[in-house]
Amino acid sequence: MPVKRRPLIKRLIKNSLKQKKSLKKLGRVIFACEADARKAAERWLSENPHFILQNLKEYSETVLNQLGKPTARPTLKWIFQKFRNINEAIFEFKGAIQREVINLNDEQIKIIKLLGHECEKYYV
User: Which of 67, 45, 69 is nearest to 58 (CA)?
Assistant: First the structure.
């Protein structure tokens, strides 16, 4: 299992660096009006939804760290740790199979919403 984890972490770090570089490049562009700048920013965020977690401070949002204190800069490993107890319950009701996500707390729901619609549709 640890062998598979390392490439994932490397890939996440590499993607994070690419995102920061592309955001910096977008910041150098001079737009004709505010509407164009907003449209470009929204497009960039839709292409990079996981970048939001790295910038909780800009959204005035925090999550609890390992010590139970609020932080605006959680590690991705800690976010994954917070999602460990989320499960899917599958049950049959009146002949139909139902699936429900269980064990979601308020903080996990907040993180899911910050990750964006693509993530939200799987959990909430």
Answer: 45
